[in-house]
Amino acid sequence: MPEAAERLAAVVTHLWGSAPPLRLRTWDGSEAGPADAPVLVIRSRRALHRLLWRPGELGLARAWVAGEIDIEGDLYQALDRLAGLVWGREEPPGPTGRGRSALRALGTLRDPATRRLLGDALALAGAALPPPPPPEEVPRRNGIRHTPARDRAAISHHYDVGNDFYALLLGPSMVYSCAYWQDGPDTGLDQAQHAKLDLVCRKLALRPGQRLLDVGCGWGSMVLHAAEHYGVQAVGVTLSEEQATYARKRVAAAGHTDLVEIRVQDYREIPDGPYDAISSIGMAEHVGSEQYLAYADRLHALLKPGGRLLNHQISRRPLRREEDYRLDDFIDRYVFPDGELAPVGSTVSLLEKAGFEVRDVEALREHYALTLRAWGAHLEAHWDEAVRLVGAGRARVWRLYMAASAVSFERNGIGVNQVLAVRPEPGGASGMPLSRGPWAAQ
Questions:
Q1: What's the pTM value of the predicted model, to 2 decimals?
Q2: How far apart are alpha carbons 320 and 9 in whole angstroms?
Q3: pLDDT per position as a tens digit, 359-407
Q4: Which domain holds residue 345?
Q5: Dihedral angle at the C-alpha atoms of 303, 306, 310, 311, nearest 10 degrees?
Q6: Other beta carbons within 10 Å of 183
Q7: Contacts of residue 419, Cβ cutoff 8 Å, sequence gap at least 6
Q8: Does 169 lie in the same domain as 95?
Q9: Do the beta carbons of residue 192 and residue 180 sit within 8 Å?
């Protein structure tokens, strides 16, 4: 009788119509698949349980986080090869469909070959029910998304995992958004992050004495850069208590408590406009489609006439039918609960509906792939310390999330854009230059 790896390879080949893109090694030591490919190691039948009961992305994610599967070889290459098989389709192929278990599918299949192969896979998995999800998984939530309380809980899940872990991951810049690799991929991460912060400041045309609001300020890097280099009075808001504590210590150490204030505050609760400029860098992905116009309206109200907004946001590709959009299972359950991506065109339209005039859109997709690979290299170099700080499961979440995201940016699955908008003066004056020169010049 064929060994486990050969039997699983036969199932994949039949259901997907092509041989496995990775070499398979199963718990019995058997191997099948291309000899020159990275190896997908399936360490136990428990992993197969998860994959059969939740086919596709969520089953794979659960097995990965639990340490029941692993990759030997280049993780980025492995995910690139898997992309077309698992993430490259709007619906998983084969008879199980999205979220439909192999056991349920088996009872309705008429094709004898498919019934036989799925039955063989179920026999390999054994009779036991699938194990519970890893503890790092956020349970499915009920109720209204993006209420202030639910947003606080979602932000806490992702960001309140320890500042020491983020310092290991991000390096001295402590910037958790796409860097700007203006001098090419050999630029150091800290230099590229400095260049991104300065690009934002130039686009906002910051000047001494102005008031800047940074929505989703993270560990304070943007407000500190703006205060130190442009002399502004800066307010940074975050929903993360740990971020705020860290940012306040940085501000005090830099001697800028007279210029910078850090608040734990929802953007919907900011009372003290108007501001001369607003930056929102990597925060709007948490807002949600149903709240996005309210978000844009609030920022518009907080900005003085003639003031500028820089909205830096990850985007997704538009669908033929936008009503088919669904949250990414792995990201929603393990990384950013309730996070939503929108096409850049939708973002521009909603900003303009709120009263902004959009003046510039810059795509930085390749820049984010480079950034994620740099973060991934930090994680790999300090793996043992990362596991000590947050546990093996959560460290594996970050390793998969960053590598898979890098591949998605590289494959043009997702993008990231800086949208520069202005609240026009009464009568329509924008105060904008006639060209990009003021911020494009180095």
A1: 0.91
A2: 33
A3: 999 999 999 999 999 999 999 999 999 999 999 999 999 999 999 999 9
A4: 148-440
A5: 60
A6: 12
A7: 309, 310, 311, 312, 313, 344, 347, 348, 351, 358, 360, 361
A8: no
A9: yes
